[in-house]
Write a structure and sequence with these properties.
Layout: H1 58-81, H2 86-102, E1 106-110, E2 116-119, E3 143-144, H3 150-163, H4 169-179, E4 184-185, E5 187-192, H5 207-213, E6 221-223, E7 229-231, E8 234-239, E9 245-250, E10 255-257, E11 263-266, H6 269-282, H7 297-302, E12 313-317, E13 320-324, H8 346-351, H9 358-366, E14 385-391, E15 395-400, E16 414-419, H10 427-434, E17 439-441, H11 444-452, H12 456-459, E18 461-462, E19 469-474, H13 496-506, H14 509-518, H15 521-529, E20 554-558, E21 561-565, H16 571-581, H17 605-619, E22 632-639, H18 643-659, E23 664-671, H19 674-682, E24 694-700, H20 708-711
Parallel strand pairs: 5-16, 22-23
Antiparallel strand pairs: 1-19, 2-17, 2-18, 3-4, 6-7, 8-9, 9-13, 10-11, 12-13, 14-15, 15-16, 19-24, 20-21
Helix pairs in contact: 1-2, 2-16, 3-4, 6-9, 14-17, 15-18
């Protein structure tokens, strides 16, 4: 994710490597319009009108579309944010999520993990907390010279479950591995698929960027491998009785250095003030996290307050940082593990052409002299590693920072990232087997090879699932039919008549639900993880149903009827209750197993046809006929050189076309490489640049421990990071 944003972060490429993207304001484009052309069956489109008025500019068309499709969700989410208690807040957010799912604008499909894997990294030696970026911190990974056997990995997971919260798991894991004859090493080699777009931690919501950057700086606090919050640059902190003031005492003597290890000064409280102001000045995709949270952040971002000293972040002295909040925010501490709160060395930033203030920053960028964050040589470091090599689409090398305040307590002295373009589905496995990289998730092709090699039974385990969710996105306001940065790439073959018909159909929620119910999610997911594990990583809700539970008993109204939920009720149960009350035939919560994962909850050709018949009747209002003789054509961009991507696309095409009995045709738009596929959707700056009818190459991960971190991702007015993937803002 990147650019302008809402309230959530961490988009993820669905190709096994993490990534991210965000909304952004920008180019205006013409909206849908009427057409008078012959249709594919030889008839005429005369009299057919588009559902979005043709006289609206792009922003107005986005507002019209959002209000029409997402208005009820938005109203219910706003109400949830005003709740008096945390339990009421969670319950009302669950009701709002149900309404969002009913729009069928984005369809949950899978989560990260839940696939076969093998390697040399000991289980649970990185944080597994659901939110933020600490899970990407690699400095304390326990890595062995030989592959770790499955029985030993499973034993380590058992130990973690027993020891979590005691502070002894790391010691016990090392003791166990040594006792089993493993030799530990201080290097780690791993594959990566997407280049960082920036090295500025405060200016990116892309998980692909943050996965690299998080190794270069420390925040105020950090989760350890037992998922316990620990002091990092802050030695201690206090929270006022009213919950509005957070005071952090910094450790002294922490050094800023450049990429060559040359000292630039000491980390001071002002660096957190500078970091917060720079983050707000850039409007780079993180500012939504503090909008309405920190005093005067909203006003500063809007330009109504220009004096940053009036914003609620202060350096009380060189080693004391104070944040003042607009209202008590129960999840505030969980936000600190993200780039929005990263420090920035003020003087170094200025030496790279930077300046502070909304207008001053933009002038610095426009001057052509601004280079901060452009490369790994253009940032200041205060974290465990320095980047000593960053060769595009080749290698990124992180070496231990000799001035790091905690240098004696990091396990890995060197981390090497090795680029993998994804064209060979077995390359990561082969590299892991030979020691080129230290681990691999297995797809269907490499699973078969692993079995043939005789390694499967002894070394393969199933990875943990995560809070990340990958979706299928529906473009309800499509503007373009080739990539915006190169009009020769990912070019649609739809006729003008087909474009108009598609825009009308995609504006109808019953039609979108048809697509969601027509896709065999199990067969689709099997192309990525194999037939045996096809259900393990399926996710049916946007926010994981067990992400939070109600701290206390609370009563909410579902369609006018009060319902009381006891303390401990999971979020997913409340989502399901609203869906059931609305007669929506999807299952997003398994109450017996207390999960939203591991089952196919949307797919039903019978229900899909029921929804299609409703859609057919409703689009007649616009003069449109949907039938096997006049099908709706949908563009799906695909990197066909990737075997797993191609297989998934073909399953999607066959499944939907079969389920919908010829009323829908999926056009596979071939992308020459991964970049063209990303440019079609993943790296767009606004919804007007979304070059597809449906898209399945981006996901979302939570930034903090509250459902709002998911739901704000589909907000309006350029504040929702995922809303642009729906063709709006």
């Amino acid at each position: 994710m990147e650019k302008n944003v809402t309230k959530s972060l961490s988009l993820i490429l669905a190709t096994a490597m993490a990534a991210a993207t965000l909304a952004g304001c920008g180019a205006k484009a013409s909206t849908s319009s009427t057409a008078n052309n012959s249709n594919p069956s030889g008839g005429t489109t005369e009299g057919i009108v588009a559902p979005i008025p043709a006289d609206l500019d792009y922003d107005a068309a986005s507002a019209f579309a959002y209000d029409a499709q997402m208005g009820e969700f938005k109203a219910m989410l706003d109400e949830a944010k005003m709740a008096d208690t945390q339990s009421e807040r969670f319950a009302k957010m669950a009701l709002a999520e149900a309404k969002m799912l009913e729009t069928a604008t984005l369809i949950p499909q899978a989560t990260r993990g839940g696939n076969y894997g093998l390697g040399r990294v000991a289980k649970r030696t990185a944080p597994t907390v659901f939110w933020g970026t600490d899970a990407e911190r690699e400095h304390n990974l326990i890595v062995t010279t030989d592959m770790i056997k499955a029985e030993d990995q499973n034993k380590l997971k058992e130990m973690w479950n027993e020891l979590k919260g005691t502070g002894t798991y790391e010691e016990k894991a090392v003791e166990y591995l040594n006792g089993k004859g493993y030799t530990l090493k201080d290097t780690y080699q791993v594959a990566y698929a997407t280049e960082p777009k920036t090295w500025d931690a405060t200016r990116t919501p892309y998980s692909t960027d943050m996965r690299a950057i998080v190794n270069t700086y420390d925040g105020l606090v950090e989760y350890d491998m037992e998922n316990e919050m620990q002091p990092a640059l802050a030695e201690s902190w206090e929270v006022s009785e009213d919950g509005l003031t957070y005071t952090f005492k910094l450790r002294k003597g922490v050094k800023w250095v450049d990429s060559q290890g040359r000292e630039l000064g000491e980390v001071k409280a002002d660096d957190f003030v500078a970091g917060m102001q720079h983050m707000m000045d850039t409007h780079g995709g993180l500012e939504y996290l503090v909008d309405g949270v920190i005093v005067n952040a909203t006003e500063y971002l809007a330009g109504d307050v220009t004096d940053f000293t009036k914003v609620g972040v202060k350096a009380a002295d060189d080693y004391t940082v104070v944040y003042t909040l607009e209202k008590p925010t129960s999840y505030f501490m969980t936000m600190l593990g993200y780039g929005v709160f990263a420090p920035v060395n003020r003087e170094y930033f200025k030496s790279k052409g930077g300046d502070f203030g909304l207008d001053a920053f933009q002038a610095a960028v426009d001057s052509g002299n601004y280079t901060y964050g452009n490369t790994s040589n253009d940032i200041a470091y205060c974290g465990p590693y320095l980047v000593t090599n960053a060769t595009a689409e080749n290698t990124i090398v992180f070496e231990a920072n000799p001035t790091y305040w905690n240098k004696d307590n990091i396990r890995l002295k060197k981390i090497v990232w090795k680029y993998n373009d994804g064209k060979d589905p077995t390359k990561v496995y082969n590299d892991a087997k030979s020691g080129v990289v230290d681990g691999a998730g297995l797809n269907s092709a490499s699973t078969e090879n692993c079995k043939k090699d005789g390694l499967f039974d002894d070394y393969v385990t199933v990875s943990d699932t995560a809070a990340n969710v990958y979706m299928m996105y529906m473009n309800i306001n499509r503007q373009i039919y080739a990539n915006v940065n190169d009009s020769t790439k990912a070019v649609s073959k739809m006729t003008d008549d087909q474009k108009l018909a598609t825009n009308i159909a995609m504006f109808n929620p019953h039609f979108r639900m048809v697509l969601a119910m027509g896709l065999d999610a199990g067969s689709y997911n099997a192309q990525r993880v194999g037939e045996e594990l096809k259900l393990t990583s399926i996710r049916n809700s946007f926010t994981p149903g067990n992400f939070v539970s109600l701290p206390d008993e609370t009563t909410v109204s579902i369609n006018g009827t009060d319902k009381t939920y006891p303390a401990g009720t999971y979020y997913g149960q409340i989502v399901q209750d609203q869906l059931d009350a609305d007669g929506i035939k999807i299952k997003v919560w398994d109450a017996e197993n207390m999960t939203s994962d591991g089952f196919v909850g949307w797919y039903s050709p019978e229900n899909a046809m029921e929804q299609l018949n409703m859609a057919i009747e409703e689009v007649k209002e616009y003069g449109l006929e949907i039938s096997p003789e006049n099908p709706i054509y949908l563009d799906l961009p695909v990197f066909m050189a990737s075997e797993s991507d191609a297989n998934r696309a073909n399953v999607l095409k066959q499944s939907i076309e079969t389920s919908l009995q010829g009323n829908v045709v999926i056009n596979i738009v071939e992308c020459a490489d991964q970049k063209d596929l990303e440019d079609a959707g993943f790296f767009i700056e606004n919804g007007g640049q979304a070059n597809y009818s449906i898209y399945n190459m981006a996901g979302w991960g939570p930034d903090y421990g509250d459902p709002q971190t998911y739901l704000d991702a589909v907000q309006d007015n350029y504040s929702g990071s995922l809303t642009m993937f729906l063709g709006m803002y």
